[in-house]
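thread: overnight batch results

M.L. [08:02]
morning all. the overnight job finished for the chain we discussed friday. pasting input first so we're all looking at the same thing
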Amino acid sequence: YQPGQLTQCDLWFPEPRIPVGQGQQRMLPVLVMTLAFSRFMTATMIPSRQAGDILSGMWALISGIGRVTTTLLWDRESAIGGTGRVSVPAAAFAGTLATQIKLAPPRDPEFKGLVERHNGFLETSFLPGRTFASPADFNEQLTGWLAQANTRTVRSIQGRPVDLLEVDYQSMLPLPPLAPATGLHHRVRLGRDYYVRLDTVDYSVDPRV
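M.L. [08:03]
and the structure it wrote out:
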């Protein structure tokens, strides 16, 4: 891989259920992104597999680095390319960043083997023995662990990701002055009952609206 060329992206699903309030616990996805040249790994827990949440997570990780590679590699994740073509929200996101999203062939996890191996690394090296009080607590612990994980020497590249990141960075694309559109957006027609449904929850609306 050439510097600034490729980022491999994937969702990892850790088994521990995370408290999300009101006595509820959920198994939440973790977005993992690996820079192919430096093997630098970033990750964050996100609320769902919906496109808005995935793209919000991608923007958080990309803006944390400060630049973006020319290609973002995904599998056929339903919100990104479940039909075999890049979804409209994902294409708009990539267009704003002047990058492109490439889809891996179906049922071929080795096509993005770097990030798949990092998923396994998270499973065996980050997760054991930890408990989490909330998604924010999970991400705080994960951030501290990643800072150490990126200092290890990777045999295949004979170097440390944290040291090679600068080489990657210099060849990556600068970020646009305006952030891409992310998050969940819904437009509904208000019915007579003054309720709107969002993510399986009904919310009442002031009748004056």
